[in-house]
Structure formats: structure tokens, C-alpha cells
Amino acid sequence: MGAVMLLYVVAAWLAADLVTGVVHWWEDRYGDPSWPIVGRHVIAPNILHHQDQRAMLAGGYWQRNWTTIVPAAAVAAVALACGQRWVALVAAFATQANEVHGWAHQRCCRVIRGLQLLGVLCSPDGHGRHHRAPFATDFCVMTDALNPVLSAVGFWRLLEFVIGCTTGVWPRPERTTA
Ligand SMILES: [Zn+2]
Ligand SMILES: [Zn+2]
User: Fold this and answer.
1) Residue 127 class from Cβ within 10 Å (0-12 exposed, 13-18 middle, 19+ buried)?
2) What is the pLDDT of residues 24-68, one digit of tens each?
3) pLDDT beyond 70 at 178
4) Can you say whether the dihedral through the CA atoms of 36, 177, 153, 96 is positive or negative?
5) How far does CA 77 lie from the centroid of its chain?
6) CA of 53 to the centre of ligand 2 (A)
7) CB-based contact 50:131 (threshold 8 Å)
8) Ligand 1 mean position to 139 CA, how many Å?
9) What's the rounded Cα separation, in Å, for the pair 24 and 140?
10) Which residues, in sequence order, are CB contacts of 30 under 8 Å at separation 6+?
11) How much of the chain exceeds pLDDT 70, in percent?
12) Cβ of 94: how many Cβ atoms within 10 Å?
């Protein structure tokens, strides 16, 4: 694989990490389980994950991932139809975000552990910061590359501040306990 191709794939993997991180941030910080459809199928399981981190591992692959696969695959299909192959690759990678997230909550095989050690995949240590106070950082669950950078520049707080100022909608308060 040429260097350009490698860059193409790595950039898509990081973009998928960022996009799914933003969706995860939105779920955590603004999600309400009483919302129609999304509340029951996305927000409620998400809240459960933060109360019981290993609950997501109890169900099968489809149960854990369908709410990510369905919208991301739809985006991939539209992108392909529009000739946007890189965007389609980002969306295809994004379909697996929650599965990669689940790997950070268990002890996986050596290959996955090696990739977690390199930060190519989100590691248990890296993702552990998301499950600690103030429960409002490290939303990216596919790699360990973006979270430190986003935290260092105050990305999530800035995003919340801008949204709060422009729409009047503020996130739930940060917490010191789960
Ligand atoms: Zn979360
Ligand atoms: Zn988690």
C-alpha cells in the first residue's frame, strides 16, 4: 500500500473516530431517554452503559451495534451514490465504532491488544478516562489519538459553550460521581 493510500485510510479512521465521538458526546451530554424512538433505542442503552459498563457485552454483535450500523450504512450508501468514496469509507468505519468501544471494556486477543497499545484502537486505559469524573471528556471510542488533543484544546467545553450561547440549550452538569 502506497503512502498516499495509507494516509487516505488513516485519515478516514480518525475522521470516523471524531464523527462518532461527536455523536457520543451529544448522547451523553444532551440525550434524554424520553425522546421518541432515539430515546429508547440509543439514549437509554447509552445511559445504562455509563451505569454498568459491561452490560453492552452481554448482548450479541447486532444488538450492540445496530443503532450505529443502520444510520452509518445509510450515509455510506448515499456517499457512494454521490461518488464520495472517502466519506463512504469514513461511514463504513463508523459502523464499527461501538464494537471497537466494547473492546476497550474487555480483555481482547493479542492482535487487538497490540493495536490498543499503539492507540490505533481505543485502549481500556484511554477509554477509562471517559468513565471517570467529570464524565464529560474523551468521547472518541475508536482510537487513543484524538481524545488527548481534544481535551488539551478544550474542544468539548468550547462546543457546549457555543451551542449554549447560540441556542440556549446547555448540557447536563458535569459530575463528580457516576
Ligand atoms: Zn459516554
Ligand atoms: Zn465505555
Assistant:
1) buried
2) 999 999 999 999 999 999 999 999 999 999 999 998 999 999 999
3) no
4) negative
5) 20
6) 6
7) yes
8) 6
9) 8
10) 169, 171, 172
11) 98
12) 26
Side-chain half-sphere exposure of 148, counting CA atoms within 13 A: 8
Which residue, among 43, 39, 108, has the nearest Cα to 127 in the 3D structure? 108
Residue 1 identity = M
Q: Which three cell numbers stand for residue 72?
A: 452509518
pLDDT digits (tens, 9 = 90+) for 151-162: 999 999 999 999
Alpha helices in the chain (DSSP H): 3-30, 38, 44-51, 61-81, 85-94, 97-103, 110-118, 124-128, 146-152, 155-167
Residue reference for cell 497499545 = 117
Residue 176 pLDDT: 72
Q: How far is the CA of 106 from the centre of ligand 1 (A)?
A: 16
Backbone φ and ψ of 53, nearest 5°:
-60, -30
Neighbours of ion ligand 1 (CB under 5 A): 28
Residue identified by cell 469524573 is 133
